[in-house]
Amino acid sequence: MKMQLAKGMPVFHATSRDSALSILTRKLDPNAVNQWGGGEFGPGFYTATTRDGAALYTDPPQVVIEFETTELLHGIAKAPAPNWSQDEELRKCCEDYDFITGLNQSPTLEYKFNHRSYGKLRAVRAHIWHGGEWTSCSVDEALVKLQGTAALNPLA
C-alpha cells in the first residue's frame, strides 16, 4: 500500500549521546547505506512517530532527535518478511521508496528511511534524558549539552 508523509511531519530517532552528537554535527550521511539497526525491515535509519515511542528502542533512554520532513515523501506499507535479506520484493521496496513502514500498524508507529532520503529529514530538536526526565532543547543547545557531557566523561 503506497502512502505519503507531508512536508513538516515530525519523526523521532532514539540513539546514544555519542551518536546524537555525530548526527547533529555531521547530519545523516547518505553514503552510510543502511548501516544502523536491525529492525523488521533490515538495517536502516528507523524513526518513530512519537518521542516516547522512539525511546522504547534504547535502554536506558539517552537522546531522542526530533526530525521533520523537508518535503513530501513517498513510501510504502508492507508486511515484514521473516528473513528480509532474502526477500527481493521487500529489498526493492526499501530501495524504490523514501520510506517503508509496517502494513498492519494502525496508526503507523515507525518508519524506516531509505538512505537517499536522509537529506529530506532536518533535525529540529533534541530530547535528552537526564535525572529521570526528558529535557527538550534546540539543536544548538543540544550540541552544547552533549559536547559538555562528552568532555566530562569521554567513555560515556
What is the topological layout?
Blueprint: E1 2-5, E2 10-15, H1 17-26, E3 45-48, H2 51-55, E4 63-69, E5 73-78, H3 88-96, E6 99-102, E7 110-113, E8 121-130, E9 133-137, H4 139-152
Parallel strand pairs: 5-6
Antiparallel strand pairs: 1-5, 2-4, 3-7, 4-8, 6-7, 8-9
Helix pairs in contact: 1-4
Structural features, described:
The chain is of the alpha+beta class. It contains four helices and nine strands. The strands form two sheets. The protein has a five-stranded mixed sheet with strand order 1-5-6-7-3. Helix 1 (17-26) crosses helix 4 (139-152). The N and C termini lie far apart (42 Å). 30% of the residues are buried.
CATH topology, by name, is Diphtheria Toxin, domain 1
CATH class: Alpha Beta
The percentage helix is: 10-25%
SSE succession: EEHEHEEHEEEEH
Which whole number gives the mean pLDDT?
Answer: 83
**How many distinct beta strands?**
9
Q: Tell me the overall shape.
A: globular
Judging by the overall fold, what is the CATH architecture?
A: Alpha-Beta Complex
Number of domains: 1
Describe the main β-sheet briefly: 5 strands, mixed
Distance between the termini: 42 Å
Beta-sheet strand percentage?
25-35%
Q: Key terms for this structure?
A:
five-stranded mixed beta sheet, 156 residues, 4 helices, 9 strands, globular, Diphtheria Toxin, domain 1, four-stranded antiparallel beta sheet
